[in-house]
Design a protein that fits this description.
alpha+beta; 2 helices; six-stranded antiparallel β-barrel; Thrombin, subunit H
């Protein structure tokens, strides 16, 4: 057995005594405020170390906020694009309604200069056969429509009603190959027959003598002969006059004034009498 007061035990006791004295000194220093400044310096030195240890967490939070913000911006951009598309569609609809109102006003202004009464009809369909220049309107016998009635738009004569049902009618345009009507040159009253060519923008005048006073640019209006079409409606404007030497007849072509391929609304004309004969 080792002696209690061996050399090893003495050194241990000395160390214990020294530590006790240091502890007492630290307690006394803390009570008296001697350690405040050293502790403050120590805290200042340890602050960068603390921030360094927090740096990974700060970077993680920043990256998370960045990704979250980007996703939020992406969603907001998608929402704004959708709203802009809806507003653009509404603007287009307003433009369409504005143009439609303008066309209707033009139609009514055109009708106000005529003695005949009219009814506005909307084009609701086209003939299934593309060779036929025929369309369907939303007015029929329930509205007093009869076969043979003239159909006009804001610019000129469109054609005539050829078939009437209860709530709709079929209209043949002046450019149909089976259509013909009597016209006269507005400048001098010369009469001729205008026939459809089968082309939506072309009419032909048949049997025009080579000596006839007709020129490019002449306005052709309905003559009223035959009773089917009221007199005075603009039909076409002469676009070509060709005279071959030795030929008895001139080749005369004209362009219809009505917007045959664009009309959405037309006017059905109620004249004082609607004849059943040829126009």
């Amino acid at each position: 057995m080792k002696p209690i007061f061996s050399s090893g035990s003495s050194s241990a006791g000395i160390r214990l005594l020294v530590l006790s004295l240091i502890a007492l000194l630290l307690v006394q220093a803390a009570r008296s405020g001697w350690l405040d400044r050293p502790l403050s310096y120590l805290a200042s030195v340890s602050l960068p170390v603390y921030k360094l240890t927090e740096l990974p967490s700060e970077i993680g939070r920043s990256l998370e906020g960045l990704f979250t913000g980007r996703e939020s911006l992406r969603e907001e951009n998608a929402r704004l694009r959708a709203e802009a598309l809806v507003l653009h569609a509404k603007t287009q609809k307003l433009a369409s309604l504005r143009a439609e109102n303008l066309r209707l006003r033009e139609l009514l202004n055109s009708a106000s200069h005529k003695e005949e009464s009219v009814v506005v009809a909307e084009v609701v369909g086209l003939a299934a056969d593309p060779a036929q220049h025929v369309f369907i309107v939303d007015k029929g016998s329930a509205d007093g429509i009869e076969e043979g009635q003239a159909v006009i738009d804001a610019d000129g004569l469109v054609g005539q009603v050829i078939n009437v049902a209860y709530n709709h009618s079929r209209v043949m345009m002046v450019t149909d190959v089976t259509h013909a009507l009597s016209v006269q040159v507005n400048r001098n009253g010369v009469r001729a027959i205008v026939e459809g060519s089968g082309l939506i923008d072309l009419l032909e005048l048949s049997h025009v003598a080579a000596t006839t006073d007709i020129k490019v640019g002449d306005l052709l209006v309905s003559s009223g002969l035959g009773g089917r079409f009221p007199a005075g409606y603009p039909v076409a404007r002469v676009s070509e006059v060709t005279i071959d030497p030795g030929e008895p007849f001139a080749t005369v072509r004209a362009r219809p004034l009505a917007q045959l391929d664009k009309a959405q609304f037309v006017l059905l004309v109620f004249s004082r009498s609607v004849a059943r004969g040829d126009g």
